[in-house]
Amino acid sequence: MKDLFGKALLDYQNGISTGSMTSVEDIITSTSISDEDILPLPYLFRSFSEMPLLEQEALQLSKGKVLDVGCGAGNHSLHLMKKGLEVKSIDISKGAIEVCKKRRLKNVHVLDIIHETETFDTILMLMNGSGFFKSLKETPKVLQHLKSLLNPNGQILIDSSDIKYMYEDDDGGYWMDANANYYGELEYHISYKGESESFPWMYIDFDNLKLACETVGLQCELILEGEHFDYLAKITKDCLKSL
Ligand SMILES: C[S@@+](CC[C@H](N)C(=O)[O-])C[C@H]1O[C@@H](n2cnc3c(N)ncnc32)[C@H](O)[C@@H]1O
């Protein structure tokens, strides 16, 4: 892993890249089904008031001991820490964790969610948390692991999108291949300052997330819908099945 995401975050934190909507210093993203797009670095350092409503709602619902999974530059963790909550922030990106330390977050670790073992009252998975599941097939396995990290009455707050609209053609039909994998499974490419890397990343629609939750004894509730097929969901232990 080249950790381009971490490099970009560190450059921005250190004032080496300033990032803007047109700058070559921003991260360029594209996917197996979409063209290049700019991910402005300042967005990865957003304050509470600059966050989408779904993220603000997730932060307002957060309680107790919190795990911020894929914390990036630590925006959500910082907000919760300032509110007085106990927060652990993890990310597989060394650069991201270095940035979190520079931003004075205390309990931060380079760690893949699959290797987390502590338990929490709130697990936050924001900015498309279903990316960590990688594929629809893998989703129940990851959810089962997340379930083992939940304290009694604990919750997972996750946002994602139904990206079916990306397959819509001009006539209102869909060009999806019925024999292909789930339509939310993408190959995600990022490039930064001339280097690039790719990894699998998945968006999941609410119904499929709910179904996957049910297979491992979790309940999934729709909390809020965004303006563009995005949503925030709350996942909790299914009390009857946990007995
Ligand atoms: C889309 S970014 C979101 C960053 C941050 N949450 C935000 O909203 O600005 C996804 C982050 O998840 C991290 N990540 C990807 N897979 C991970 C995994 N299996 N465990 C922990 N972190 C992971 C990436 O390194 C990246 O920092």
Written overview of the protein:
This protein is of the alpha/beta class and 243 residues long. It has seven helices and eleven strands. The chain has helices at residues 4-13, 53-61, 75-82, 94-102, 139-148, 206-215, 239-242; strands spanning 27-31, 34-39, 65-69, 86-91, 108-110, 120-125, 150-161, 185-192, 195-202, 218-225, 230-237. The protein has a seven-stranded mixed beta sheet with strand order 5-4-3-6-7-11-10, sandwiched between helices. Strands 2-1-8-9 form a four-stranded antiparallel beta sheet, covered by helices on one side. Helix 4 (94-102) links the parallel strand 4 and strand 5. Helix 5 packs across helix 6. S-adenosylmethionine is lined by residues 5, 44, 69-72, 75, 90-93, 96, 112-113, 126-127, 132.
Largest sheet: 7 strands, mixed
| Structure ligands | S-adenosylmethionine
Query: How helical, in percent, are the residues?
Result: 10-25%
Poorly predicted parts: none
Strand arrangement across the biggest beta sheet: 5-4-3-6-7-11-10
Shape: globular
Number of strands: 11
- Measured on Cα atoms, how large is the radius of gyration? 18 Å
List the total number of helices. Answer: 7
* Beginning-to-end CA distance, first to last residue: 41 Å
**How much strand content do the residues show?**
25-35%
Order of helices and strands: HEEHEHEHEEHEEEHEEH
Structural class: alpha/beta
